[in-house]
């Protein structure tokens, strides 16, 4: 899975070109590549619930990317959910986001 960001000014230009499942890569003069021998240890989908202290320790550390940040108001049971790739099991989590 990849995640990309498009500047609002270019959204209309690129929107017709983006389709789920397609791969578009742009290499710039500043782009560097590093060969990775094996990626089986990297899960395709993963998340980790952590304390705000642990998140604070990640400030200015570019080794980890923290995405959605909030306070877990409720952690429920594991539910099976349909995705574009089939069915997957995910926990029912309600976040309080400021």
Structural topology:
Layout: H1 11-14, H2 52-57, E1 71-83, E2 86-96
Antiparallel strand pairs: 1-2
Lateral strand order in the biggest sheet: 1-2
Shape: extended
Number of beta strands: 2
Largest sheet: 2 strands, antiparallel
What is the domain tally?
Answer: 1
How many helices?
Answer: 2
Average pLDDT works out at: 78
Which regions contain 5 or more consecutive residues with pLDDT less than 50?
Answer: none
Order of helices and strands: HHEE
Q: Per DSSP, what share of the residues sits in E-state strands of 2 or more residues?
A: 15-25%
Task: Round the Cα radius of gyration to an integer and report it.
Answer: 18 Å
- Supply the helix-strand structural class: alpha+beta
**Chain oligomer state:** single chain
Distance between the termini: 27 Å
Helix amount, in percent?
Answer: 10-25%
